[in-house]
Amino acid sequence: MFFERPEAGETAVLVHVNFRDEKEREDAGELLELVRSAGAVPAILLEGSRPRPDSRTFIGEGKVEEVREALAEHEAELVIFNHSLSPSQQRNLEATLECRVIDRTGLILDIFAQRARTHEGKLQVELAQLEYMSTRLVRGWTHLERQKGGIGLRGPGETQLETDRRLLRVRIKSIHKRLEKVHKQRDQNRRARSRAEIPSLSLVGYTNAGKSTLFNALTTSDVYAADQLFATLDPTLRRLELEDVGQAVLADTVGFIRHLPHKLVEAFQATLQEAAEADLLVHIIDAADPENDRNTEQVNQVLSEIDAGDVPRLLVMNKIDRLDMAPRIERDGFGRPLIVWLSARDGKGVELLMQAFSELLADNVISTRLTLGPEKSRLRAGLHELDAVKDESYDEQGNALLDIRLEKRDFLQLLSHLGESSEDYLGGEHDDLEDWQRELSAERAEKHRVSVTHKT
């Protein structure tokens, strides 16, 4: 768009460098998956080791010559680095090799551009691309650094670079405004679900861990799922029916990846907010991947960036069909589900995951029998209004025997409204109800504080 750069073909020479710093290391196998996901054909993978990147070409003159020979041998027109290049390094390499050079960030952006289907997804990808491009405009138009004078050629006094930057800023600002509207709409939807007390679950995990396959198995949907990186880009929400909980909302989100470009995290903030606002994060892990520990660490890092680090979490070890293992649930010392081992592709263990969902989310539900005398008619009516009465009968004394099931929060609000105490009805069976009542009061106070601050 803004560059006079060499044309790029589909055949690519791949470059991977191992550095001494473990934090800077990338996975060569992951690069091959990224390249195939982008639709390119990897011709050869050139590897090397360096203590630190070369400031001019990233890989040094000797390795640049090796890349040039590989381009000629395989008749390739594209070089893809498994690292992030600075704008000057990218320009120097393209000038020397006389072909298109793409770094890891540009490759991921290209995959995202191919996968985006919804209007929101396309806007997010365009925003990330423009912000990435804005740092690479310098000396892109070497023949138009100054606008010429003369009849029909006089410009507004800007260099071509200044014009490009201004156009970029205008477009980026426009996209930010449109995404802000999307963000507000998502907030409204989440608030509506919150008012309806519908719990939300969000699938998160490293790319290609099997999130969409599991999503389809849980919801009988037909979300696109494939053995490739970033098969899912646009978020999808479906309703689940859980035993002892009722309806819940399950969200499938974009996969994370090691060294995910920060601009992408910012651009997809509205999408990733589904994870930050969830009642339960379902972290999908490829149990057969030898790198799953590092991948899990990367997912946790991205979750911290979007302020979702403290959201309750359930781990799901997927693809156990490759390990010849039986599905099972691992529990903590209190009997709460911690890890579910399953195979989303075969459907083995999916029922155990649904059971774990019910157990974790049912902590917020009261299911008990109440004995109410005639003087408690207002409480009885309130429970009926909440559709919490599952069965009702009367004893010989005329007391109503109610089998109820409802959210703890709803029950506390009803009792508070009627001036009743939870201990009179539940005794010590739910000792944590008073804590819930205090939390509810604190939550109301915080919402009031935020509202006042916003108005001010």
From TrEMBL:
Superkingdom in the source lineage: Bacteria
Lineage, opening ranks: Bacteria, Pseudomonadati, Pseudomonadota, Gammaproteobacteria, Oceanospirillales
Annotated family: Belongs to the TRAFAC class OBG-HflX-like GTPase superfamily. HflX GTPase family.
Entries under Gene3D superfamilies matching the protein: 6.10.250.2860, GTPase HflX, N-terminal domain (3.40.50.11060), P-loop containing nucleotide triphosphate hydrolases (3.40.50.300)
One of the Pfam families matching this protein, by short name: GTP-bdg_N
Assembly with partners or alone: Monomer. Associates with the 50S ribosomal subunit.
Residues annotated to bind Mg(2+): S212, T232
Sequence ranges assigned to domain Hflx-type G in this UniProt record: 199-365
Swiss-Prot/TrEMBL keywords: Cytoplasm, GTP-binding, Magnesium, Metal-binding, Nucleotide-binding
InterPro entries documented for this protein: G_HFLX_dom (IPR030394), GTP-bd (IPR006073), GTP-bd_M (IPR032305), GTPase_HflX (IPR016496), GTPase_HflX_N (IPR025121), GTPase_HflX_N_sf (IPR042108), HflX_C (IPR045498), P-loop_NTPase (IPR027417)
Cofactor(s), names only, from the UniProt record: Mg(2+)
Chief location category: cytoplasm
Name of the protein in its database record: GTPase HflX
Presence of keyword Ribonucleoprotein: no
Localisation: Cytoplasm
Signal peptide: none
Residues that bind GTP: 205-212, 230-234, 252-255, 318-321, 343-345
Reported function: GTPase that associates with the 50S ribosomal subunit and may have a role during protein synthesis or ribosome biogenesis.
GO terms of molecular function: GTP binding; GTPase activity; metal ion binding; ribosome binding
Gene Ontology terms: cellular component: cytoplasm
